[in-house]
């Protein structure tokens, strides 16, 4: 097991010194509980599902980790009668899951999408209600600014008025969108709603730079959070009702919200087209003035992708990669653009990038863009690799890039090769292009994590990657950087994503890189933004006059 789990995992492991780890073969179902907190289960492709029976009590906060070897697994929570309750992890070699139990027994199923191996399931916590802390409540009570909620208070809270209110929300959908109270035509008042939480509710993905506690409206079942926003807002969001309060660090208490985080049931615009349950699903909102996202409007066509395993000698690991070959693709065409995208599974499923690229090529706005989508493995590995990791950059430039060129039949051409990603993937894209500009001449960075700096970086007034750009002095880098208006730092003396992205873009321009574009969007840290920003970035770099011949600075 890894050494980066919480202290509670250490307690669970120590308790096994007096008893051997229980092992379960595929045909058996073994019990996992506080008395036996760790099981190893054999699984195999195309055979009976490996199962572990989870013993708990209703109201318990359950947190566990699954570590698979041999092949990745899907981790599914079911009732004891076999009814599917929730997908805990999807195609992982290591993943942490969290739930709040509403029964005293479940089954954890391991399903292998490919291959055979062994997975270890370990309970990190199984805290019954009496061992949890008092529920967290919003620290400040705020009167509603929404005219609709104000009118409800004026009318008086009653069963009839509440029933009428929720019936209207069922018809109109949520969130509640109203005219700006200050009568600015470019602004709107948006009120997010949740019905019937007992203790609290928290909005994740709010138009703010942090999670937001929702307020309870008087003695009603209405929880709300209102925001005055620009009329071009676009965002996806989820709501976590009745978050369990647990002992532990601030980070552990904060991540407990993942146990109940789910889509807004009254929102009529689900964001993830293939979400497997309400916990994976996100809700979507785009106000009237939200900019058009090129190629996204009709991105419903299912396009074939080829999945392969990329084994890296440099990184000493292997992962899935997916190859997208455009229709009417001619390898010898000099205007082809080779794209490498990090967090590939999410860009396939959430951003629908293959379909967007297809639409833009079909409409004549982009040349053919053969693409490699790169899997990110588990969260710990993702952090290690995408945080401007030199070995990861070397693996992409010297191992994966030649494989992609051979697969698509493309000659090396740094002017037509681009890496792209968001968050840590945006940071990594910039670092790789700066360090390997002789192979990769462009990057698209969406909400890049430019707050990052390695140990020993002292210059607080400089973004680390901006210093890297000055040191490397790459020739003729082309870049598109973007950030959401709600991604500013919560601390006055630190760079956030918004400030860091602008700083890097300005630095590159000052260094003489003319083909650098910086753009902001009214929104946050969000695939709802990034799916359009990636298209905007590729169009800025390779659309129109940039399709061929317009860039000769190398």
Brief overview:
This protein has 554 residues and is α/β, with parallel strands linked by helices.
Structure commentary:
It is a single chain. The chain has 554 residues and is of the alpha/beta class. Helices cover 24% and strands 29% of the residues. It is built from twelve helices and 26 strands. It has an eight-stranded mixed β-sheet, with helices on both faces. Strands 1-3-10-5-8 form a five-stranded mixed β-sheet, covered by helices on one side. Helix 11 links the parallel strand 25 (478-484) and strand 26. Helix 7 (379-386) runs parallel beside helix 9 and helix 10 (464-472) runs parallel beside helix 11. The longest helix is centred in the C-terminal third of the chain and has 19 residues, at 390-408. It is globular and about 70 Å long. Residues 1-27 and 545-554 have low confidence and may be disordered.
SSE topology:
Blueprint (H helix, E strand, L loop, with lengths): L6 H8 L7 E3 L4 E4 L5 E7 L5 E6 L5 E9 L3 E6 L5 E9 L1 E7 L4 E7 L4 E12 L19 H9 L3 H14 L3 E4 L7 E9 L5 E4 L7 E2 L1 E2 L5 E9 L3 E8 L8 H6 L27 E4 L19 E7 L4 E8 L13 E4 L2 H6 L3 H10 L8 E4 L4 H8 L3 H19 L8 E6 L1 H12 L6 E5 L17 H9 L5 E7 L12 H14 L5 E6 L5 H16 L12
Parallel strand pairs: 1-3, 2-4, 21-22, 21-23, 23-24, 24-25, 25-26
Antiparallel strand pairs: 3-10, 4-9, 5-8, 5-10, 6-7, 6-9, 11-12, 12-16, 13-14, 13-17, 15-16, 17-18, 19-20, 20-22
